[in-house]
Design brief:
The structure holds two protein chains of two kinds. Chain A is an alpha/beta fold. Chain A is built from eight helices and 13 strands. Chain A folds into two domains: 2-220, HUPs (Rossmann fold, 3-Layer(aba) Sandwich); 234-264. Chain A has helices at 35-49, 67-75, 87-90, 97-111, 130-138, 194-202, 218-221, 245-258, and strands at residues 2-6, 9-13, 29-33, 55-61, 80-84, 115-119, 141-152, 157-163, 168-175, 178-182, 205-208, 224-230, 239-240. In chain A, helix 2 crosses helix 6. The longest helix of chain B is centred in the first third of the chain and has 16 residues, at 16-31. The relative contact order of chain B is 0.12. Classes of the chains: A alpha/beta, B alpha/beta. Bound molecules: flavin-adenine dinucleotide (FAD).
Amino acid sequence: MKVLVTVKEVREVDDEFEIEGTEIPEQYLEYDLNEWDDYAVEEGVQLQEDGVADEVVAATIGPERTEETIRMALAKGADRAVRVWDDALEDVELLDVGAKARILAEVVEEEEPDLVLTGVQAGDDAFGATGVALARKVGYEWAAVVNHLDLDADEGVAHVHRELEGGIDELTDVELPAVLTIQTGINEPRYASLRGIRQAQRKEIAEQSLGDLGLSAADVEGELELTDMYEPETESEATYFEGDAGEQAAQLADLLRDAGVVDA
Amino acid sequence: MILAVAEHRRGELRDVSLELITAGRQLADDVDTALHVAVIGGDVDRFAERLDRDGVDVIHTVDHGEEFNHGVYEQVTVQLVEELDPEYVLTPNSVNGLDFAPAVATKLDLPLVTDAVGLTADDGTLTVNRDMYGSKVETAVGVDADQAVVTIRGGDWAPAEGTADAEVRAFDAEVDESALGSTVTGFEAAAEGDVDISEAEFIVSIGRGIEEEENLPLIEALVEATGATLASSRPIVDNEWLPKNRQVGQSGKVVTPDVYVAIGISGAVQHVAGMKGSDTIVAINTDPNAPIFDIADYGIAGDLFEVVPELIEEFGGEVPDV
Ligand SMILES: Cc1cc2nc3c(=O)[nH]c(=O)nc-3n(C[C@H](O)[C@H](O)[C@H](O)COP(=O)(O)OP(=O)(O)OC[C@H]3O[C@@H](n4cnc5c(N)ncnc54)[C@H](O)[C@@H]3O)c2cc1C
């Protein structure tokens, strides 16, 4: 069976940053493999190690810079990768869920995987919806927020736990082919070994443009526009304890004693 | 009209359903239209009674199945949208909401905006406020379309109150059972274990700022010296450094202690969902812009590895070597 894992390079904001218009300037940003996707990659690689999957393909939407991130997925064990990028995507400020799903759907239709693993959400824009939208687009079955997977390849069923609110799991049987959105904690993502990193250099990253996928700029424009970005309003006026660590600790200790929660 | 799809689980309407009514009513007032609520599956008549709150005009009951099934919810919602032609469809931004709303939007080729914390409509343009970058910034997203699907964050709108006399209509949906590819076979609750942190009066909670499992004894020493109950954010539990029953948040426990001290926790929305009801919140974090400070009453913008040892000494504890 073939597994496709979607991975995204996410932007992370430094502790100190500024907002310019609807953007955070480049100098305050760092890039990393999306936390949730790291678990999705691990799940795919484990399926391969268990002999359930024959091939694990990573797919991403991102500019050339993201090759560094997608190589991390390859170093952890994915066999090869597809990277979709296009000048038309360069101009899109907010790539919405529909556009992402349309692009990834073309990749899925080309690769015809039996199982697609995505992260529950991306740490930066946090829509949390691309996996399910993709499934519907390609007519696959799906399950969102999966924290346990037991795949029965012969029966063509994924027995999954979906993590609901409040520590309750929903036990669900999902027919393959399917898209599962993977939750953190489902496994223990490995660190790439030196050998893995070396091997990753030789693995294929196929670049595809929108045109290669049979799409045009109009397919990715979307109806959403980022019109403003600002610091969230604070709900409380926090009192900050000033001074050095010792002084701060002393003030906090007084607070805890006054609140009557510590006697010491 | 605005169409809001309520959520229930194991025989109970979830609170977010009543919050959805408040959000939906506000939006309906903006566009000067009616608010319709749909409830799919379960004891729909009983649910309809509870959903009959101020501001609701019509409640559509769809008597099909007991529990949530995304295929059923998708099919029924699509049929409701085709029949009623609402401007906006609202669902909770819950685990189940995110299991069917994207499918509805894709099926109907509508724009989707998730995790809304604010909604305004003006001259046919919808503006949705939502967070990015782990709540470090908030954004406004303009939706340039006549119809859209929006999921709303739980706990951000007040639950609707009062009683209305909404018209209750049984909606005769046609569910194609053969198209359902997922079957819910049961539910399982996380093991309770040794403590119930939801009962605690004083919680010291640790997050990813602790960096390594080897550093945990520092926090354990603080807990020891103060008699606090130890809790954590999710990554600590994902890493199996602490058991699941210590996790605070959306997928863990909701806690309401007198004092909650969040150490090295950024304040992601799913964490805050579990502790914002604490009487007094104290945050210790090196990042002065961490969202946890937005809900904290007291803050120390500082390094836990410097502050915590001092705090342990304040209470006469032994500082471990980490
Ligand atoms: C469906 C779903 C459900 C979820 N459920 C939960 C849940 O129930 N509970 C939960 O907690 N999360 C939950 N999450 C995860 C959540 O989104 C966050 O990823 C998580 O809360 C982050 O944990 P954290 O604050 O410990 O880590 P981070 O966000 O990484 O924050 C670490 C913080 O430590 C600070 N720090 C670093 N070093 C130091 C130092 N030396 N001293 C002081 N501070 C320092 C940093 O500035 C940072 O603010 C859920 C996510 C999803 C998608």
